[in-house]
Amino acid sequence: MNVLRPWMVAVLLVATACSGGPSSTPDQAPGATPEPAAQENPETPDLTKQELATDSESVTLVPSPVETQRALERAGIETQLSALISDRKLDVANVNPDNAAVRTGVVVADMLLTVKTSSKGQLLSQLDQVEAGMKQLDGGKDIQATLGDIKDRVQGDAVTRDELLKELDEISQAVIPELDFNGRDRIVPLIQAGSWLEGANLLAKAVEKADKPSAADGLLKQPAVVDYFLRYVKTEGQAKAPEAVTKKLESSLETLKGIASKDGSLTTEDIDTVSKTTDDVLALL
Amino acid sequence: MPKWIAIAGVLGLLASTTAHANEDQAETCVRAKVWDGYGQGWAIRTMTTASLTSGATKNYMVTLYAGNEYQIQACGDSNVRNLDLLLYDTDGRIVARDDSKSREPIFTFKPKKTTTFYVVVYGQQLVDASEPAGVGVAVSYR
C-alpha cells in the first residue's frame, strides 16, 4: 500500500509505545484488522463570533410561512393568515427571472398557508403556478416531475391535505433551497424573499386586526433575514437593467430593516408601515 | 411509499451530484427522523447535507421565533463516530448543545425572543480522520 494514513501512524505509535510493557488495549486476534484510531478533537469547536458570522450558510435563515403562523398563535393572535390572503393570480411565466422568483415565492407562501382549507381548484391553480415558476427559473426536470406527481394525486383525491402539507413543506424548505437554477445564486433568496414578504404582510395585517402591536416584536424583528435579502437584491441586482420590482423591493427592504432593527417595542405606526410597505411591493407583482 | 418517491428522487439527485462523502446515507437518516417527527407535531424548517472533515464544522444561520419550540438533529454517515450539534447566539456563546457521543445528535430549544442563531454541526470524532464524512442536518419546529 502506497498511502500511509494518519490512523496507521497512530496505530504504529501506540504499538511502539506499548511494546516494552503490558498492553492496556484488548488483545487482537491474529490477522484481525485493527480499528483505525480516531483523531482526538476538542469537545467544543474553537469558533469565534467573527468566524460564525462569516463562515455560515444563510439559506437556512428564513422562517417558513407555516412556522410564522405558529409563532403568531403562540403570541396570542388567533387570526389565520390564510384568511387574509388576497385573491390574485400571479403570472410567473412571462416575466424576467427576478420577478418570477419573487412571484413564485409569494405563491408558495399562499399555497402552504391555505393547503388545508383551499378547494381542489384553488390548490391545482397554485400548483400550476409554482410549476410554471420552476420552469421559468430552470429549476430542472426533477422538480417538475415532483410537482406533476403531486398534481396528479390532488386531481385524483389520492392524498390527504395533512400529507400534502408535509410534502409541500419539504419542497419549500428543503428541495427548492437546494436547487441550482443554472448557477444563478440569487434565485433561491428571491423566492424566499417573496415568501417572507407575503408572510410579513399577512402578519402585519393580523397584528393590526388584533390591535396587539407589541406582539409583533417577537415576529417582525428579523433584521438578519432582511439583510440576507438585501445582499442579493443590492449587490447582484446592480449588474442587471433597472427593474421596477427589484428597485421597489430594495427600498421596501430598507424600510423593513429600519423597523426590524429598532430598539424598543414596535408601535401601531410601525406595523402600519410594514403593512403598507409590503402591500406596495406585492401590488407591483 | 410511492407518494414520496418523486420527492426522494429530487433530494437523492441533489445529494448525489454534490456527494463527496456518503451524504446520501446521512440524508436518508435525517429525512426519516424529520418525517417521524410529524407524528409528534414537528414540521420541517430546513434540511440539508454536507461533507465534514475531522474537527471541522459546518455552520448555518437560522432565525428562530420566540414561542415556537425547535428540534435540531443531525445524522452522520458510517465514517462518523461522534457528531456534535451546537447552537450559538450571535455573540458567539453556546446556548444549547447535545451531550451525546452519538453520530445522530439531537436536542430541543425554545428561544426566549425571536432572533438569529447559528446551528453548528461538528465532526468531533471520525472513524477514519483522513476521509470526510457525510452529514445531514435538520431543524424542525412545533
How does this structure look, described?
The complex is a heterodimer of chains A (285) and B (142). Chain A is built from twelve helices and one strand. By secondary structure, chain A is mainly α. Chain A has one domain (61-284). In chain A, helix 3 (65-74) runs parallel beside helix 8 (187-210), helix 4 (97-114) packs antiparallel against helix 5 and helix 11 packs antiparallel against helix 12 (268-284). Chain A is globular, with a radius of gyration of 25 Å. Residues 1-28 of chain A have low confidence and may be disordered. Chain B is α+β, with helices and mostly antiparallel strands. Chain B has a single domain, classed as Jelly Rolls, CATH 2.60.120.380. Chain B is built from two helices and eight strands. Chain B has helices spanning 2-18, 23-38; strands at 43-52, 57-64, 70-76, 80-89, 94-97, 106-109, 115-126, 133-141. In chain B, strands 1-8-3-6 form a four-stranded antiparallel beta sheet, with helices on one face. Chain B has a four-stranded antiparallel beta sheet with strand order 2-7-4-5, with no helix packed on it. Chain B is globular, with a radius of gyration of 15 Å. Chain B starts with a helix and ends with a strand. Mean pLDDT of chain B is 89; it is low at 15-19. Classes of the chains: A mainly alpha (285), B alpha+beta (142). At the A-B interface, helix 2, strand 1, helix 3, helix 6 and helix 7 of A face helix 1, helix 2, strand 1, strand 2 and strand 4 of B.
Order of helices and strands of chain B: HHEEEEEEEE
**Side-by-side strand order of the widest sheet of chain B:** 1-8-3-6
* CATH fold type of chain B: Jelly Rolls
Kindly give the count of domains of chain B.
1
Cα-based radius of gyration of chain B, to the nearest Å = 15 Å
- What is the average per-residue confidence, as pLDDT of chain B, rounded to a whole number? 89
Task: Please identify the structural class of chain B as seen in this structure.
Answer: alpha+beta
Q: Which pair has the most extensive contact?
A: A-B, 65 and 59 residues
Q: Number of domains in the coordinates of chain A?
A: 1
Q: Radius of gyration of chain A in whole Å, from Cα?
A: 25 Å
Overall shape of chain B: globular
Shape of chain A: globular
First-last Cα distance of chain B: 25 Å
Q: On the 0-100 scale, what is the average pLDDT of chain A?
A: 84
Classification by helices and strands of chain A: mainly alpha
Q: Give the helix proportion of chain B (percent range).
A: 10-25%
